[in-house]
Amino acid sequence: MLGMWASVYFALAGRPRWSGWRWRWTGRQLLAITAAPAVLLLTWLGTPAARRRHALAQWCATAGAVLAGIFLPFALLAPRGMYHGMIAYHFNKVARPERDMAVWREALAGNGWLLALALAALGIWLWMRRRHSSPLAPLAGVFVIAHFVFLLAQKRMWAFYFDPLIPACAALGAYPWVVLRARPVAPRWKWAPPVLLAALLAVPLYASVRDYLAHESHYLMAVQPMAEYLAQRAPEGAALFGDSASTPLLALLTGLPVAGNEVDTNVMRFTSGTSPLGSVLDSLRAYPVTYVVGNSYVARGGSGRVWMGVAGLPEFRRLVAGAPFREFHDPRKGTYVIYELSRVPR
Question: What predicted TM-score, i.e. pTM, was given to this entire model?
Answer without folding.
Answer: 0.62
